[in-house]
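Task: encode each sequence below as structure tokens.

Item 1
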Amino acid sequence: MEKAIYKRIILKLSGEALAGEKGFGIDPDVLRDIAAQVEDVRRLGVEVAIVVGGGNIWRGAPAGERGMDRATADYMGMLATVLNAMALQDALETRGVDTRVQTAIAMQQVAEPYIRRRAIRHLEKGRVVIFAGGTGNPYFSTDTTASLRAAEIEAEVILLAKGKVDAVYDADPLINPEAKKFTELTYIDLINKGLGVMDSTAASLCMDNRIPLIVFGLNKSGNIKRVVLGEKIGTYVV
């Protein structure tokens, strides 16, 4: 029988991963595939919480660099993550997976407010919880949200699912075919080498709370389950 090596996980999905090959918006085929993979993981008895980005709809930092007020741009990005979370919730519930969306910015008509104890209770009841709205504060990335929520709900690992790459490299493999792939790194390596997998705030938070990170690609269907079962794919960061 297949046996998961984790009991509770945070799955971090970038907005770009939801866009698929289109590069913008939400690809329904990608959404359905992710929902099917999450359903498979839930069947293994794993408690799944998901943090979604919003880069497929809006990116706050570049808008800030082009002259928009950075706080305003970041709040717009947080709203983009709610759109992605609602789409993912719909895809999961279409498959019969009981799902809750919790947002760091109150919007009671479409989602619950983020309450740590309620989130943990949902997980214990077998529901998938999707965290949207980032941390609720500008200047913080959704990678930092994943690190913070993982610490709060005592997740055993963060699974960082990428849309275009399958691991951590010393250069962009899409540009440089000679880029070296890392199978294992420390958070200090991640920060000192400036590898760009996650920002330094998120990496420091994971390091301080001893939360391992696995970076892998969504380029092959079933990869989420493979990671949960302990298969060595992608890059393991400790």
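Item 2
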Amino acid sequence: MKHFTLKELIRSATAQRLGINNTPPASAVKALHALVDNVLDPLRDAWGGPIWVNSGYRCAELNRLVGGTPYSQHQKGEAADITVGSRSANRRLLALIKRLDLPVDQCIDEKGCRWIHVSHRKGRNRRLYMKF
């Protein structure tokens, strides 16, 4: 992990505020490393500036409280919601993800590019691009 830390990938203001232990199991830590190595670090290198993680790993309780889907890849350490600070910049980041053909499982434009959800999983990554 060149540009990202495990600490920022598991940090959650909601978990802190509610006293939820959001410590990932070893399998999720391994998946987070794969997400960073295969998607986030190459993206950061190509972007040339900071990329912030809004949400990375979420334990089941935290995922439920923030309205995540029951099968969210965040719970496995396979996903992160990222931003570069504005909707217009996030749109450029999304275009860059597509241009780089990074091995994403899902890449989701969330709420008009307020943030971008990216995921990576061991094995086949579907390269699904969606809007929500």
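Check on item 2: DSSP finds five helices and five strands in the chain. The mean pLDDT is 96.
End of task.
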